Amino acid sequence: MLAYAEQADRQRGVQTLYLLTAAAAFFTQRGYVRIPCENAPPALHQTAEFAALCPASAVRPTKARDSPPA
Q1: Domain ranges of the chain
Q2: What is the chain's mean pLDDT, rounded?
Q3: Is 0.70 topped by the overall pTM?
Q4: Per-residue 3-state assignment (H helix, E strand, C coil) for the chain
Q5: Which residues have CB under 8 Å from 66's CB, separation 6+?
Protein backbone atom coordinates (compact mmCIF):
# COMPACT_ATOMS: atom_id res chain seq x y z
CA MET A 1 0.00 0.00 0.00
CA LEU A 2 2.80 2.40 0.84
CA ALA A 3 4.56 1.85 -2.49
CA TYR A 4 1.26 2.40 -4.31
CA ALA A 5 0.59 5.64 -2.42
CA GLU A 6 4.13 6.88 -3.08
CA GLN A 7 3.82 6.09 -6.80
CA ALA A 8 0.46 7.86 -7.02
CA ASP A 9 1.99 10.93 -5.37
CA ARG A 10 4.94 10.87 -7.79
CA GLN A 11 2.53 10.78 -10.73
CA ARG A 12 0.73 13.82 -9.28
CA GLY A 13 4.03 15.70 -8.98
CA VAL A 14 4.31 15.64 -5.18
CA GLN A 15 7.87 16.69 -4.32
CA THR A 16 8.06 15.68 -0.65
CA LEU A 17 5.86 13.52 1.56
CA TYR A 18 5.21 14.57 5.15
CA LEU A 19 3.61 12.19 7.62
CA LEU A 20 1.97 12.71 10.98
CA THR A 21 2.29 9.36 12.70
CA ALA A 22 3.03 7.50 15.89
CA ALA A 23 4.46 4.63 13.78
CA ALA A 24 7.79 6.27 12.92
CA ALA A 25 9.81 3.05 13.04
CA PHE A 26 7.77 1.55 10.19
CA PHE A 27 8.44 4.56 7.96
CA THR A 28 12.09 5.16 8.89
CA GLN A 29 12.81 1.56 7.87
CA ARG A 30 11.42 2.50 4.47
CA GLY A 31 13.55 5.55 3.80
CA TYR A 32 11.70 8.28 5.67
CA VAL A 33 13.66 10.66 7.89
CA ARG A 34 12.42 12.19 11.13
CA ILE A 35 12.33 15.97 11.12
CA PRO A 36 11.69 18.41 13.95
CA CYS A 37 8.17 19.80 14.03
CA GLU A 38 9.40 23.31 13.37
CA ASN A 39 11.01 22.19 10.07
CA ALA A 40 7.68 21.22 8.51
CA PRO A 41 6.37 23.62 5.86
CA PRO A 42 4.11 26.45 7.04
CA ALA A 43 1.14 25.07 5.07
CA LEU A 44 1.38 21.84 7.07
CA HIS A 45 1.42 23.77 10.35
CA GLN A 46 -1.94 25.27 9.42
CA THR A 47 -3.77 21.94 9.11
CA ALA A 48 -6.07 20.72 11.87
CA GLU A 49 -4.23 17.41 12.00
CA PHE A 50 -0.88 19.04 12.59
CA ALA A 51 -2.10 21.70 14.99
CA ALA A 52 -4.61 19.78 17.09
CA LEU A 53 -5.23 16.16 16.22
CA CYS A 54 -1.71 14.85 16.04
CA PRO A 55 -0.55 13.67 19.47
CA ALA A 56 2.50 15.31 20.97
CA SER A 57 4.27 11.93 20.86
CA ALA A 58 3.88 11.67 17.09
CA VAL A 59 6.89 12.28 14.90
CA ARG A 60 6.93 13.82 11.48
CA PRO A 61 8.76 11.55 9.03
CA THR A 62 9.42 12.95 5.57
CA LYS A 63 10.64 11.55 2.29
CA ALA A 64 11.92 13.44 -0.73
CA ARG A 65 10.37 12.53 -4.06
CA ASP A 66 13.67 11.32 -5.50
CA SER A 67 14.05 8.71 -2.75
CA PRO A 68 13.62 5.10 -3.89
CA PRO A 69 10.13 3.59 -3.50
CA ALA A 70 9.33 1.66 -0.33
Answers
A1: 2-64
A2: 80
A3: no
A4: CHHHHHHHHHHCCCCEEECCECCHHHHHCCCCEEECHHHCCHHHHCCHHHHHHCCCCCEEEEEECCCCCC
A5: none
